[in-house]
Amino acid sequence: MKRIPKPVFFIVAILIILFTATSILGVSYYQGDVEQTVFKGINDIRWGIDIRGGVEATFKPADDMDATDEQLDSAKSIIETRMVSSGITDYELYADYGSDRIIVRFPWKEDETDFDPVKAIDELAATAKLTFQNASGEVLMDGSAVKSAVAGVNTETGSAGEYMVYLDLTSEGAKTFAEVTAANVGQQISIYMDDILLSSPTVNEAITGGKASITGNFTVEEANDLANQINGGALPFSLEVASYSSISPTLGQNSLMAMGYAGIIAFILIALFMIIRYRIPGFVAVIALLGQVGLSIAAITRYFAPFDSFTMTLPGIAGIILSIGMGVDANIITAERIKDEFRTGKTLDAAIEKGSKNSLTAIIDGNMTVVIVSIILLLVFGPSNILSWLFGASTTGTIYAFGYTLLMGVISNFIMGVFFSRIMLRSISRFKCLRKNWLFGGAK
Fold first, then answer.
1. CATH number of the structural domain 7-28+251-440
2. Could you give the CA distance from residue 400 to residue 405 in angstroms, rounded to a whole number?
């Protein structure tokens, strides 16, 4: 068996526990009166309509414009893009071509306190037309030149720590931007979102790298919202709100709290069962399960910056619970295989090595079938709506949530329950005081 140094167990276990604690509780600090989030936790999750309620709004073209079906489809697509880029995956979106209406239902923001429907729908209805203008008001370039936008932190001397929006220009946009900046060296180019001035930087030299940035004393939320609006693009026409209302949750916060307590109690009972039944392999499995829970939550909250946040619905919670059950099953299979090896007279090291190897095939077979089903659910019921004509758009959010959390849970199981648990088990077996077969499932 490959020897794993003794300290590895403590290093891995401590890192898993710290990671799980930060993924659940989050990490933030205050810079003046503004709270800066380092890692998002459970309190930063955007809960679905079924848990926290949300908003229903009906949009129509402004000034009673007679929109074509293609224009309505374009507006619907942009609204959908804005919701997905904001981490809203529990939504319903329809276009009524007969009356030129777009109907949308989506959940409240995670930090919503006023529960004002008008404020909530403003981010979806904004025209979001980005323009670069010179001092005389002439439009030099528009948002079509921008390939993507992302919020970030300014690292330049004198402005370090300020939030800004980085722009990645298209090949044609980069060429246009180089010409525009070369012609306006020493002058200001103002950047507008619709009629709102965002920034008026002075051009020091021609910018030819295809990159640009927008500054404007943004908070992190304002920078993210602006980046999302730019990525979403401009609507083909201005929208007016024909009607709106708040949606009551079908589950509610109290039920969510009850589920949380039930989950904690269930985890404690599972931990006790694993430790009593399997001793050291059970103890290692409990640490791995903690890591699986933490990694599943991190996949929802945007703990890792490159990954988008996610709307948590009741089926999504069910997906996490099911994946944790599969994680328990994976550790039980490994522990039982180790016990089987002891019965054939294997030594401690040989039993751990052979038992871990023999259990891997069964674990992979069981989990891969779930991975395949999860991916199918994501493709069918996700934002791409591959088969929405068959299943209906109203089912996309909840089923997508189930597939996403189930997939993330299975991946977390492989990382924590298969990879790290085996490293910890091999490491802890190096301690002389613990090298007793019965502590690993063998006979006394």
1. 1.20.1640.10
2. 9
